[in-house]
Amino acid sequence: MMITITDAARRLWKDEEGLGTLEMIMIIAVLIAVVLVFRTEIVKVVKDLISTAGSKSQEVFE
Question: Rounded CA gap, 42 and 36, in Å?
């Protein structure tokens, strides 16, 4: 009985099925947390990039 429990625990520890899904969920959770923490800074950078692109495009057409 004890040998089968030990073997089952070893097989469970070595089982890697579903590990890729867990890794993807963890990466997505970290990315969402980073976006939520730095949301205002990200919005500011994007707005600056858009305004710079707009002014540069106006220079091209002049």
Answer: 10
pTM for the whole structure:
0.50
Q: Is 51 helix (H, G, I), strand (E, B) or coil?
A: helix
Helix or strand (DSSP H, E) at 52: helix 39-61
C-alpha separations of 46 from 2, 15, 16, 52, 53 in Å: 61, 43, 40, 10, 10
36, two tokens: 């939520």
pLDDT digits (tens, 9 = 90+) for 17-28: 666 777 888 999
* pLDDT tens profile 29-38: 999 999 999 9
CA angle 50, 48, 53 (to 5 degrees): 35
